[in-house]
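Standup notes
- HV: blocked on the assembly model, inputs below
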Amino acid sequence: MESIIQSFVTFLGVYAAAGIVFALPFSFWGAPRIDPAAKGSPLGFRLLLLPAATALWPLLLIKWIKALQT
Amino acid sequence: MSTQYTAVIWNREKKRYDRYLAGLIGLFLLAFCGLTLALQPEITAETLIIRATGTTALLLLHLTLMIGPLCRIDPAFLPLLYNRRHLGVTTFFFGLIHGVFNLIQFHSLGNVNPLVSLFTANVHYGSLSNFPFQVLGFGALVILFLMAATSHDFWLKNLGPKAWKTLHMFVYLAYGLLVMHVLLGVAQAEHSPVAIGFLGMGVVTVISLHLAAAFFGQRGQFTAAAGEDFVEVCGLADIEDKRAKVCLIGKENIAIFKYDGKLAAVSNICKHQHGPLGEGKIVDGCITCPWHGYQYLPENGCSPPPFTEKVSTYELKLVGDRIFVNPRPHPEGTRVEPVEIPRKHE
């Protein structure tokens, strides 16, 4: 049981670390790319995107890549 | 409605609401801490913070869940609905403080990772009465975090209203987890009948309000007769001026508005958060969603420029003082000439 929980917590840590690395560039460059209304938005708005961008980074990465391809 | 995002849309009403919210939370915390200190003078500051923040979060979650059904029962509560988002985010922050202090006090003093300790301190996962209640609280906090983090309109638009709404409906799962978290916590640690009593009152109130809203807030359901395009819905007198009558015909959820001596019908579902347009009213010539103030012109279902939201429109006809609607929707944003109400009926 403990090894499963240890693996789960390690996975959470890696996932969150990857999310933090992703969130900052997403807030400044990805968000305006997938939603033009985010262009030129104030710093406070961009900082507000960080928690959800950290949590949902795989989904947002796909959206960002799709937006870059169009 | 705005063309560019800002961090928080604060207007005079929202600021006033937030001041009331902060004041009431402050009063509650003072009362809670004062009472706890009077009854348990030996309590440590950490334990007091854990209990005060956890109780506040649970109370705020109850209030958050009560607002929706209250508005369906009585529109006088709608101003609370417009500001519910701030209440939800505040709930998460109190839950977060509660969770962090718990981790520090109970799980961070050994050589085991605090999160691993949270999941392994009690491993009676097969037992109902001894189930590790901390894990339930952690699950609820994760849900509240996702809801608070995605509460901005940017996420609503870019995750899509359906996915966003589905995510935010998980609040009921979070509520269930929190109720079990408190029940098991009290049963395993404190055995306090007062806490169980208050929790029971809260659960009964939330469930009763939802049942009452389902009963009183039921929309008119109609069925189209075979071969008939139009369905009789109501009389002119059944709709107040600048308000709507809502009807469900098959899968179509339609709001029929009466305004300026005219009738017009649009989809009852707002493009923003699927709010009930028919529970809103006509403001400055526009149908105004009661949830967040998104607006649509009654004759074509389009938001006024520069906004781009559109909803479906429907054909109406008036026979005597009876209103008939064709439940086949026009494409979103299609202009349908409003039906003029003869002067004798106004």
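- HV (later): unblocked. Chain B touches chain A through 23 residues (CB under 8 Å). The longest strand of chain B covers residues 252-259.
- Next: hand off to the docking folks.
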